[in-house]
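=== Discrete structure encoding ===
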Amino acid sequence: MLRLAARTVVIALVALAPTSARAEDPDGGALVVPVEPLAPVAKSPTKPAASAKRGKKTPKNPPVTLYHVNRRDTLALRFRDSQGQPVKGMQKRFARFLRCHHTNTSHSINPRLARLIYQTGRHWPGHRVEVVSGYRNPKVAKNPRSPHMKGLACDFRVEGVKTADLRDYLRKTFEKVGVGYYPNSTFVHLDVRKERSAFWIDYSGPGERAVYSENPNQDLKTGRADQYHPSKIDESWADDTSNQQVHASDVENPAQTPTP
């Protein structure tokens, strides 16, 4: 009886020993007891580091940077903040920014024009909109019907964007606008209208009299719009005080204006 109890104790101790353990049989023999290895402890999944980089979200209603090339000042244009609330006083600041750089006089600017310029800037994020001319005082606007004189027009470009690409975007995206293309200058004209859109091409360079295309759409198809570089007009015409240079964007519908 005692020997049976002793054997039971030895077996119990061997069960707690490693697999390779050998228990001595009380009778003098070695009793080998197989032992199953312990199951590995499951590790909890590793959590990503708190400092892991996450994709940056595009801010809501981001501002568009406007830069006036003649006055060298800037304006962060947006009409709603990141919470979607209206930005107070923005329309007045925009009108002040587009004031006549010749006379420094301000004029109310059509709200739709402001929003079209903002939308254009949003189309090319990270590229500032460079304004060449906004409101134009009647003293410097040669044509009494100039949309610039009424706060309806703006000449501008987008930094790093070809004027041809800007031209195409404005024409394809907006309705009831006037778009003037100046392949030998540095900007595109945009104005807002109540009726159908208009498009024209002026081949003149800075400081030259307007040289309008007789068929602007045809010139785009043939490639002439970006290849034609007319020779400079004899500057002696400026000696005649009866001949005043008319900026292409001062004409209400220059597409119908005959080539000088």
About this structure: The first strand starts at residue 23 and ends at 24. The longest helix spans residues 2-15. Residues 138 and 149 are 6 Å apart (CA to CA). Residues 64-200 form a domain with the Muramoyl-pentapeptide Carboxypeptidase; domain 2 fold (CATH 3.30.1380).
